[in-house]
Write a structure and sequence with these properties.
7-stranded parallel beta sheet, alpha/beta, 17 strands, TIM Barrel
Length: 414
């Protein structure tokens, strides 16, 4: 069998030698508007795929393929990366998002929204990561990665997440370093109290393992300063998720009284603090998002905080959160960047988030449809939009794993 490199060479030489020189490939997606931020592509092009890898991206790759998919009128983009999900599902009662009923098996909720990679945000800690790997990661077609919780027992809710004695930077870093193929960061979340120790231990673990920290800031009365968090505690490249939340006993990025973005937030983003949406069931408000975008504070990354509560509330899925960003005035190239190449860079996975020849063929085919669409925030307020992003087709390693309207299938003949 010809190597992938040789097939790539043949495809390119075919343009200069003869159409007969082209080797039939597995799949060509034709005529879609390709957006690939890593490679600076924003134009109508074809994408060919062979042996699970991207073979070529060019204006006209012909039709010499085992399968040809007409993508006219759609956007063809790298498989989406959801930077904040909860997938450590299981059957432990009262364990919130750690081996529990509230988390979700990924394959049922990723592909239909164009997501081919999801990062579990702190469901497991060093004590139970192996269970998560054996139970979920090893049995999912979706690529599942993880932020390891600084709490050894993971995101089990209640008193378990308040246990300062179970926040061990060394043991967390050791588990992360033992699983570099899967653990891409450290998570600190939900701590209620005046102590900075949870954040400090998470950053220490991140430093020891050479990976970023994601912060779902806890709560206290009075609220801890996010300016201190951004400039004194976190490092450039660390992630502030739920950036458009306004939760009790936490300081929001937009001052609710003045409706102005706190000036230091812009400086923090310039410093390299990643503003991540992390929509969730309680962490996305129009009162925050609309003035933030109007004043120029755009999220670096788009993510869902996927779990049973969020998917059945205003969040719904990744495509719906991206549609909200379209309503907020972000362009499609900006939205795709924040859903593909930027999160890949944030988690130090440069092999993901693009459709460079030779890369794994994770691809999403999206359509922007016109109409009247209601978008709900996590307090129940609705805005009406005129456009919606839907996922028509998802490929994982070159294979169709989601096809909304059968665009990859032949027409039935009596």
């Amino acid at each position: 069998m010809r190597s992938l490199f040789l097939k790539q060479l043949i495809v390119y030489l075919a343009f200069f030698i003869s159409p007969l020189a082209a080797q039939e490939v597995d799949l060509i997606i034709k005529g879609g508007h390709v957006i690939d931020p890593k490679n600076g592509i924003d134009a109508v092009m074809d994408v060919s795929i062979d042996e699970g890898k991207i073979l070529a991206v060019a204006e006209d790759l012909g039709s010499d393929a085992f399968q040809v998919i007409d993508a006219t009128g759609t956007y063809v983009v790298p498989g989406l990366i959801d930077l904040h999900g909860h997938n450590f599902f299981g059957t432990e009662a009262d364990h919130y998002l750690s081996n529990s009923y509230t988390a979700l098996p990924p394959d049922g909720f990723t592909f239909r929204a164009g997501v081919t990679t999801i990062v579990d945000a702190g469901g497991a800690g060093w004590r139970n990561f192996k269970t998560f790997k054996n139970q979920t990661i090893d049995h999912s077609r979706t690529r599942v990665l993880a932020f390891l919780n600084i709490v050894g027992s993971g995101m089990a809710g209640g008193a378990i997440e308040q246990n300062l004695a179970d926040m061990d930077a060394k043991l967390t870093a050791l588990e992360a370093k033992a699983n570099p193929d899967y653990v891409v960061g450290i998570k600190v979340a939900h701590y209620m109290g005046p102590e900075w120790m949870p954040v400090e231990q998470a950053v220490k673990a991140g430093e020891m393992a050479g990976i970023p920290v994601m912060v779902d800031f806890g709560g206290n009365e009075p609220a801890l300063s996010i300016e201190t968090l951004f400039f004194d505690k976190l490092r450039p490249g660390d992630i502030f998720t739920h950036c458009f939340a306004n939760v009790g006993r936490r300081e929001p990025v937009v001052d609710p009284t003045t409706r102005k973005v706190r000036p230091f937030v812009f400086e923090a983003q310039k410093r390299g603090i990643i503003m991540d949406i992390g929509h969730g069931g309680g962490s996305f408000l129009w009162d925050q998002a609309i003035p933030a975008l109007e004043q120029g504070l755009k999220p670096n990354t788009i993510s869902t905080d996927l779990h049973t509560g969020s998917m059945n509330g205003g969040m719904k899925d990744m495509a719906n959160v991206m549609s909200k960003c379209l309503y907020l005035g972000m362009s499609m190239p900006e939205i795709i960047m924040a859903s593909t190449w930027k999160p890949a860079q944030v988690i130090n996975r440069p092999e993901l988030g693009h459709i460079t020849p030779g890369a794994e063929a994770d691809v999403a085919v999206l359509r922007v449809v016109d109409g009247d669409f209601g978008y709900i925030d996590t307090k129940g307020w609705k805005v009406m939009g005129t456009q919606k992003i839907i996922c028509e087709l998802t490929l994982r390693e070159g294979r169709v794993v989601w096809d909304l309207n059968g665009m990859s299938r032949p027409q039935w003949e009596k």
